[in-house]
Amino acid sequence: MYILILGAPGSGKGTQGNILAERLGLPKITTGDLIRTAMQDGTPFGVEAKKYYDDGKLVPDSVILSLIKDQLARPEAKQGAILDGFPRTAAQAELVDKTLAERGQRLNHILLLDVTEDELVRRMADRGRTDDTPAAIANRQNIYQRDTAPLIAHYTQRGIVHRVPGTGTVDQISEDIKRIIGR
Ligand code: AMP
C-alpha cells in the first residue's frame, strides 16, 4: 500500500508519517530528510540542493526526479511505502504515478493534513531548521499553494484524497488516520 501524506510545511506530516509507517510496517520515504542528509554529507546533490533549500524554494525537478525514482526502486519499497514530502510538483506526481503503474501498483490513499496558516507559522517558528527563517517560511507556504496544492485536485478526481483535521493532539490525528485507512 502506498500512502502519500500531504500538507503545508509545518502541518505535522513527518510526525504522522512516522506513526503510520511503524504501525503498517512500511518504509517511509522523506525527500526533505534525504536532502538534509545529503547537505550535511556535502555530496554533489546536497551542494546543489542547498542553493534552493535555505531560501525555502523547491529543489528543481531536474535534480530531484532521479532521487525519487531510486527511492521507489528500493527493494523494501516494492510492496508499499509512506511518501512524505513528495510528489510536490506535477512532474513528480507524473513520475510516481508512472513508476507505480508500471509495477501494477498505484497510490492508494492521500492524507491531507489540514492546519490553519497561523498554526503552521507558529509551529515552524519552534523548530529552528536552517529553512525556518521568516522569509524562507513565507516562500515555502507560497510554493506549497502554487505548486503542490494543485495536486490535490488531480488526486481528488481519483477519489483517494482524505482530509484530516490537523489541529488535534498527535494521538487524535493518528486515530483519525487509522479510521480512514482501516488499519
Ligand atoms: P520538507 O522537509 O518536506 O519541509 O522540505 C524542506 C525543503 O526540502 C523544501 O523547502 C525543499 O527545498 C526541499 N524538498 C523536500 N522535498 C522536496 C521535493 N519533493 N521536491 C523539491 N524540493 C523538496
CATH architecture of the domain at 2-29 and 80-177: 3-Layer(aba) Sandwich
Q: What CATH first level of the domain at 2-29 and 80-177 would be assigned? A: Alpha Beta
> How many whole angstroms does the radius of gyration measure?
16 Å
According to CATH, what is the topology of the domain at 2-29 and 80-177? Rossmann fold
Total of DSSP H or I helical runs spanning 4+ residues: 9
From the helix content, strand content and strand pairing, which structural class follows? alpha/beta
**Sequence of strands across the biggest β-sheet:** 2-3-1-4-5
What is the chain-wise order of helices and strands? EHEHHHEHEHHHEH
List the helices and strands and how they pair.
Layout: E1 2-7, H1 13-24, E2 28-30, H2 31-41, H3 44-53, H4 61-73, E3 81-84, H5 90-102, E4 107-114, H6 117-125, H7 134-148, H8 150-156, E5 161-165, H9 170-181
The structure holds adenosine monophosphate.
Sum this structure up briefly.
The protein has 183 residues and is an alpha/beta fold. Helices cover 56% and strands 14% of the residues.
